[in-house]
From TrEMBL:
Domain Bulb-type lectin: 24-148
Name recorded for this polypeptide: non-specific serine/threonine protein kinase
Entry-linked PROSITE patterns: BULB_LECTIN, EGF_3, PAN, PROTEIN_KINASE_ATP, PROTEIN_KINASE_DOM
Organism superkingdom: Eukaryota
Length: 617
């Protein structure tokens, strides 16, 4: 009899154990379970049930998901702000598909927010192999009515979609625990927002601490989070229904989780199955001081070692503070914007995009700069592949903040500058370039190069520039030609005129408008609708060896622009046509320079840095 008792007792023990370890991963309608029982995913990785965080007492029981057979590592909490006060919590799946957590007196502590299903269906609660708790129709189509991955706590697991379900306006973001013993809403959150120009942002309350973005076609600006990695593959998906960041593990034997900690760190942990004894902190993303939001203030750029520099054209607002390594006051313009009186753009390369991008999806790449110029609050623009389906016009309204230097990779952005700033940059460049050109000439002694340089330099010396002409000729520019010198972080931009504008201005290139002809093509006089007179050098197709060559010519001319010299207003490259548009100077000498006659090298002596040439001679 005694043996029977013992056997029965053992059997009960074993069956109790079986109940909890038999991999029950589902709960059927009207089934319920109490504290002590758990669901375990069929791959034995995750467990769903009641737990007490940290060393807390049983006075605070939470319903959640953790790794099965690992030191308690919670990845999701249902009732994070409303614990059950004793061990009598009860989980019930109702027939209508709603999951409810009751306390002992059957008060609802927490429930899923899916709408009760009216039609006949067969709901089932299942803890999936990815750690996602789902309520689905157990029928043929497995429709999911609710899933815990839609309501993450502080952890992004592989396959969880951080971001937006646009059709229902649901945002999935993670929020830290208050402390390691208290899973209630903490102060730090990490999210993908806003949907218009998605960035990944870490916040403390509503204050931004750290930011990656916006997405630029391959990664979030300033991050390498989507880079190829042997461990996991990241994806960013954007379509009319969804917008999310997600990662999947490439190695099944590694567990991983991205967590926003209660101290505000964004941390990525891994655990190698059967090998690890503790979680390995692979990376804590926001530890670079340069990632500290707005560290260098407005128009400041953060360099490694957390030093700040102003964008060129800007100067520290408070040099004293900057001297004391307090950079947050940022930088101010050396020359104020005139807005509408010929502001232009300077191109920067290798930056993390500033914060607060706005997408102007109704404009093409070419219109972007022009439209930005027309809006006085528009401080920068870029053509960005935000949605992975082609580049879009992205602009920054208001002052630019939170930029970081990325010597390898990083973004191209065009920043608004006043006309006088553009001029002084051009002047500085002219000096540098002349030195460069001349020293190349000196070293190589190449006659060919020399005559080329002479050509370029000579035309500019011949003609005095007329009064300043406003660049603000609305509607005439359809885009811009831009360049960046290698190893430079700034550049010019030369307007591109569309063919129709030029044809209109020059009476369809009528003979009456022709003012000269040469081996390269013809020169026409014309007038824009705003009254500005122009001279158009229309290049013969055969005289252009290639786009590269033309670009070089444009670059050189642009670099050489000076207020006392004739001005290249822009160019037009459309189909077979290639044209350079200069401002028109009534005096005859214009013809000479436009014809590109070679002048004697002596003329160069009049140029600003004749010294090297003289020594060459
Ligand atoms: C839980 O299940 C038991 C047995 O299946 C049942 O008697 C009880 O009413 C259920 N409790 C709730 C709250 O549904
Ligand atoms: C729990 O208590 C142990 C020993 O008292 C301590 O070492 C550990 O850090 C505590 N854990 C937490 C999360 O407080
Ligand atoms: C259950 O929750 C309700 C509402 O929060 C509370 O008034 C009641 O005391 C709780 N019962 C138990 C047994 O904890
Ligand atoms: C799946 O089944 C539900 C309930 O029967 C139904 O409402 C839904 O339209 C079905 N979905 C698909 C994709 O067939
Ligand atoms: C790209 O996708 C976005 C959102 O899905 C859409 O608004 C935009 O018009 C698309 N752009 C192009 C060029 O197809
Ligand atoms: C871990 O060890 C268990 C038991 O030895 C084994 O069944 C399992 O395949 C191992 N898992 C991996 C990923 O090596
Ligand atoms: C294009 O979009 C911008 C910003 O949304 C708006 O200000 C502008 O009026 C729009 N332009 C046109 C032509 O629709
Ligand atoms: C500039 O563009 C922004 C964003 O589209 C808009 O809110 C603002 O009203 C515009 N300002 C002007 C002067 O057009």
């Amino acid at each position: 009899m005694r043996t029977l008792y013992i056997l029965t007792f053992l059997w009960i023990l074993v069956s109790q154990n079986l109940q909890t370890s038999m991999c029950i991963d589902t709960l059927k309608p009207n089934q319920n379970f109490t504290d002590g029982f758990t669901l375990i995913s069929s791959n034995q990785r995750f467990e769903f049930g009641f737990f007490t965080p940290g060393n807390g007492s049983y006075g605070s029981r939470y319903l959640g998901i953790w790794y099965h057979n690992l030191p308690l590592t919670v990845v999701w909490v249902a009732n994070r702000n409303n614990p059950v006060r004793d061990l009598n919590g009860k989980v019930v799946l109702l027939e209508n598909g709603v999951l409810i957590l009751y306390n002992h007196s059957l008060a609802t502590i927490w429930s899923t927010n899916n709408l009760p299903i009216k039609t006949t269906f067969n709901p089932v609660l299942q803890l999936s192999n990815s750690g996602n708790l789902v309520i689905r129709d157990d029928g043929r189509n497995n429709t999911i009515f609710w899933e815990s991955f839609d309501y993450p706590t502080d952890t992004v697991l592989p396959d969880l979609k951080l971001g937006w379900k646009l059709d229902v306006g649901l945002q999935r973001l993670i929020r830290s625990w208050k402390s390691i013993e208290d899973p209630s809403d903490g102060e730090y959150s990490f999210s993908l927002d806003p949907p218009e120009a998605p960035q990944l942002v870490l916040r403390s309350g509503s204050r931004k601490l750290f930011r990656w973005g916006p997405f630029d076609g391959t990664s979030f600006s300033g991050s390498n989070i989507l880079n190829v990695n042997p461990l996991f593959r990241s994806t960013y998906v954007s379509n009319s229904l969804e917008l999310y960041y997600q990662y999947e593990m490439l190695d099944e034997s590694v567990f991983s989780r991205l967590v926003v900690s209660s101290l505000g760190f964004l941390q990525y942990f891994t655990w190698r199955v059967n090998i690890s004894k503790e979680w390995n902190l692979l990376v804590s993303f926001n530890t670079d001081p340069c990632d500290s939001y707005g560290k260098c203030g407005y128009y400041g750029i953060c360099y490694s070692l957390s030093s700040c520099k102003c964008l060129s054209g800007f100067t520290p607002t408070s040099p004293l503070d900057w001297g004391l390594f307090s950079y947050s006051g940022g930088c101010k313009r050396k020359h104020e914007l005139e807005c509408g009186h010929g502001d232009g753009f300077v191109k920067y390369d290798g930056l993390k995009f500033p914060d607060n991008p706005t997408v102007w999806s109704n404009y093409t790449d070419h219109e972007c700069g022009t439209k930005c110029l027309e809006n006085c609050s528009c401080m920068a623009y870029a053509n960005v592949n935000v949605y992975r389906n082609g580049s879009l016009c992205v602009v920054w309204i208001g002052d630019l903040i939170d930029m970081k230097n990325f010597p390898n990779g990083g973004e191209k952005i065009y920043i608004r500058m006043s006309r006088s700033e553009l001029q002084s940059i051009a002047d500085a460049k002219r000096k540098r370039v002349t030195v460069k050109v001349v020293s190349i000439v000196t070293v190589l002694g190449s006659l060919l190069l020399f005559s080329g340089a002479v050509w370029y330099l000579s035309w500019v010396t011949r003609v005095k520039r007329k009064d300043r002409i406003s660049m603000n000729s609305k509607g005439q520019r359809s885009g811009s030609f831009q360049y960046v010198e290698d190893n430079q972080d700034e550049g010019f931009q030369l307007p591109i005129y569309d063919l129709d504008t030029i044809l209109l201005a020059c009476n369809n290139f009528s003979e009456r408008n022709k003012i000269g002809q040469g081996g390269f093509g013809s020169v026409y006089k014309g007038q824009f609708s705003n009254g500005q007179e122009i001279a158009v050098k229309r290049l013969l197709e055969k005289s252009i060896q290639g786009v590269e060559e033309l670009k070089n010519e444009l670059i050189l001319i642009a670099k050489l622009q000076h207020r006392n010299l004739v001005k290249l207003l822009g160019c037009c490259i459309e189909g077979e046509e290639t044209m350079l548009v200069y401002e028109y100077l009534p005096n005859k000498s214009l013809n000479n320079f436009i014809y590109g006659t070679l002048y004697s090298p002596c003329l160069i002596l009049h140029f600003s840095i004749p010294y090297f040439l003289c020594s060459f001679k």
